[in-house]
Amino acid sequence: MTRDWRTRHAALLDRLTAQGHVANLGFALYAYAHLPGVRLAGKRRGGSYHAWVDDGRGSAAQADGSGHVWEYGPRALWEELEKLWGLYREAGAPEASAFGLSVTARGQRVWLRDPGVPVGTAGAPHPHRVPGT
To answer: Were 119 and a residue from 33, 50, 73, 97 both cysteine, which residue would form a disulfide, CB within 3.0 to 4.6 Å?
Structure first.
């Protein structure tokens, strides 16, 4: 398991971070539905938006709007967010009001625009959880 910081250039999503687009509630809902257990937080600092992501299991990422991302732990969380950003844009970059949540005795399901169109893996086992932990 990698336990050191990795720095890399991530121009696409980091440029969007600098503009505050990662703070968009629609994208946050989309990300939460696809990455259960992952937390996304941020704050505007010095003219750009700084974002922090962590999975609560030892992996984290930070972007400060400069074009660099710092990642820590076994998961490449920022890479996952970059992929999700593309899927979110392909889905039409839906606003928060386009999402819904169905809750039943069997679990919960996040949906987009229609209860019959589930989004992500909410309610499913965490896709990155190590069995037995």
So the answer is: 33
| pTM, full prediction | 0.72
Show the domain range for 66.
5-94
Neighbours of 118 (CB within 10 A): 16
Residue 106, in any domain of the structure: no
* Torsion 64-65-71-76 (CA) sign: positive
Residue 17: what pLDDT? 56
- In-domain check, residue 25: yes
What does the pLDDT read at residue 78? 84
Burial tier of 82 (Cβ tally within 10 Å: 0-12, 13-18, 19+): middle
Q: For each successive 10 residues of the chain (133 residues), what is the average pLDDT?
A: 48 55 79 88 78 91 78 88 86 91 88 87 40 34
